[in-house]
Write a structure and sequence with these properties.
With 334 residues, the chain is mainly β. The two termini are 29 Å apart. Mean pLDDT is 92; it is low at 1-16. The protein contains 6 helices and 17 strands.
């Protein structure tokens, strides 16, 4: 089953303006920046010498005087010189927007600290897990580590699958997106998927006639040497006994045939360690296998030779390169 849900190239709003000093309730402070686009969140940062939370409000294109959904103090030893007794003199105030709503002005009482452009680009991306932004209940593991229906494959992954030629089997074809893409480029592409209601419901128009639904067992319903290529994108991490299927791939491929596979690269975890983040795609609850480039090669080694390894769907976080998925192409051993 294919569950590709990556986001790439999402812009991040930089600091909006030069810092603005202010005084409130007899205490000094500084508004430093506003950010959050394209998310539906206006995040503001600064510091304040007073003991209480600042009564910041946001005016938007839809509403006036919105109070923060989150107001938190932040450790700011750098501003002690301003006379702040509390090391946690920094603040972060978040305002949650509705779809299409844009910030207009951030206010402290009658004073405007920031005047926003109506076309600032907020709330143009609806994030997965949006419900967590307003959640006030303790959630169990199943509410976080979720799964979803098969989705379309990104253009980068489709471009990679187009290396396959001739008669192609998409193993774990999801909604048939890659099958249709391959057929649109002249490949004789077919798919195989689990015979489940969610799969039947998700299949794209035009894909059904080229997809075989089955119970998931071995052998698969194909004769020996039926295909020139097998492609399998973001699938092998979902199958507990995936090693059982490698000889089956070998059986249904013609001599000289090839396997093209992609799967999340678990080296993304140590790679993102300096950024204090974990790639969110790893929250997918049906991931049961976690691969490195070396372990993918080892999985196929008894029956296939490794031709090339690829790096797909990668990103940078605060300047650090974080790998996304492993791509690999293997050749059928005699």
């Amino acid at each position: 089953m294919r569950l590709l849900r990556r986001l790439g190239g999402v812009p991040v709003t930089p600091a909006a303006q030069a810092p603005i000093g202010f005084e409130h309730d007899g205490h000094v402070g500084t508004f430093e920046r506003i950010e959050g686009a394209p998310l539906p969140i206006v995040r503001t940062f600064g510091w304040y010498a007073g003991p209480r939370h600042l009564p910041l409000v946001l005016d938007t294109t839809h509403r006036n005087g919105i109070a923060p959904t989150v107001y938190s103090k932040i450790l700011r030893p750098d501003v002690r010189a301003a006379g702040i007794a509390d090391e946690f003199g920094g603040f972060r105030a978040d305002f949650l927007l509705d779809a299409g709503e844009q910030p207009v002005a951030l206010r402290l009482g009658e004073r405007t600290l920031h005047q926003a452009s109506p076309s600032a680009g907020y709330a143009t991306l609806d994030p997965h897990y949006r419900n967590l932004l307003t959640q006030d209940k303790v959630l169990g593991r199943n509410a976080i580590y979720g799964s979803g229906p098969p989705t379309n494959v990104s253009d980068e992954f489709k471009t990679f699958t187009l290396r396959a030629e001739g008669k192609v089997l998409d193993f774990g074809c999801g909604n048939g997106d890659v099958v249709l893409a391959l057929r649109g480029q002249g490949r004789d592409a077919h798919g195989i998927e689990l015979d489940e209601p969610r799969i039947r419901k998700a299949l794209k128009p035009g894909a059904e006639q080229h997809v075989t639904l089955y119970g998931g067992g071995i052998p698969s319903p194909f004769a020996d040497a039926s295909f020139d290529w097998i492609v399998s994108t973001e699938v092998i991490e979902h199958i507990p006994d995936i090693a059982r299927y490698i000889p089956e791939f070998h059986r249904v491929l013609r001599p000289g045939g090839k396997v093209l596979v992609t799967t999340p690269d678990i080296t993304s975890i140590p790679s993102s360690f300096p950024t204090n983040t974990v790639p969110w795609h790893l929250l997918e609850s049906t991931h049961v296998n976690f691969f490195t480039p070396a372990s993918v090669a080892g999985l196929f080694a008894p029956h296939f030779d490794l031709d090339s390894t690829y790096c797909l769907g990668s990103t940078r976080i605060n300047g650090f390169f974080v790998p996304g998925s492993i791509g690999a192409i293997f050749s059928h051993k005699p």
